[in-house]
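Aim 2 progress. For ABC transporter substrate-binding protein, the working sequence is reproduced below.
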Amino acid sequence: MSQHAPVLTRRGVLRAAAAVTATSALVACGKNDDQAADGVVEVELWHGQVDTGKAAIDALINEFNRTHPNIRVNGGGGGVTADSMLQKVTAGLAAGSFPDIAYIFGSDLASLTRSPKVADLSGALNLGDFWPAAQESVTVKGKVRAAPALLDSLCLVYNKKLFAAAGLSAPKPGWTWDDFITTAKALTNPGKGVFGTGWPGVGDEDTVWRLWPMIWDLGGDVASQDGKKVAFDQVGAQALGTLDRLRTDKSLYVDLKPGSEQLYQVFLGGRMGMVATGPWQLPDLAAKGLDYGVVPLPTYSGKPVTISGPDTWTVFDNGKAKVKAASEFVNWLIQPQQDIKWDVEGGSLPLSKGTAASPAWTKHSGETPGLKVFVDALETARVRPTISAYPKISQALGEAIVSVLLGKKSPDDAIKQAVDVSNAVLAVPS
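Predicted structure tokens for this construct:
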């Protein structure tokens, strides 16, 4: 969901939260709903941001408090980064002491809504102008259960210098996965320690989310429409077969450490030709002075498709007054005037088309090479389904991907095991 520090303990950004299944039993009471002595409603926000992301959200909180005298948002709580927020909130729900708002990864939201303490924001937010990926990420079983917080997309960043050294033309939109495999092999130079591309090999969500666009492109999906079985059983082996071809060509760098830090460091160090990543990586590329380009992901079908891994501002029910105040804050936060500040300073893509059309974003995009490609990709971006079984499906598929990356299983055997495990999970009523 990157390792760029601002917002973005991100994605450390993307990891499945297998531990969240315990939330179904959480019915703990929250904090007292009383207002402060001065009649102001206190709202506790756990945002988990660091560095420039923290500075951006703190500045917005201060502006809101200045312009909304009847609400006071306190943004210093939680004591953990966004990567650890789910565990912190889950423990708080169990103990009966939880925030009014928390920054929750989109892939975790459905499982968290098993708790009755997650507020229903249906009717409280106007999301009509928001990108479909942002809307879908906060909708669980037809109800709006959070506000969009951060939006990204996955595209392909390439090193222009390495392409030139290998005598290769720059990749273009519409290129195929066969083109990608051939290009990665041509870029690989073992004598100089140069890899064509790379992939996380831990088995976490950072490993998994990169495969979903390939599965969607082949006509598959995470789960069937009735939710009773997976829908990647017929195409998963082909997607994994692409990784297997890269592995056998020895053009693939597999990062076996959590967080994908090594993978990105290899790319930033000029020893990797191409990497799938998000807009959070662009500041690091600029700081490194790397001559790079950005193109959409390769395709099997010829049609563009990618994935977005949105995060959310999830509101918790500590009483009607607090829910109302918290909803007012997050609704204010996601409007274009505030969203643009968060996007530029915190590292997000525009949450809505209105923000994307603003002069401030146009200026920022024009000054950041490749950023427009990530925004354009939102037109075809899909999100992982907001189903409570997703973390366990992700875990099973992650294990399958790693087994192929390490040459321990064939794509057919690996996907069969993932399908069997996932179908067993889906067979249990949520």
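The CA atoms of residues 219 and 235 lie 7 Å apart. This observation will guide construct design in the next reporting period.
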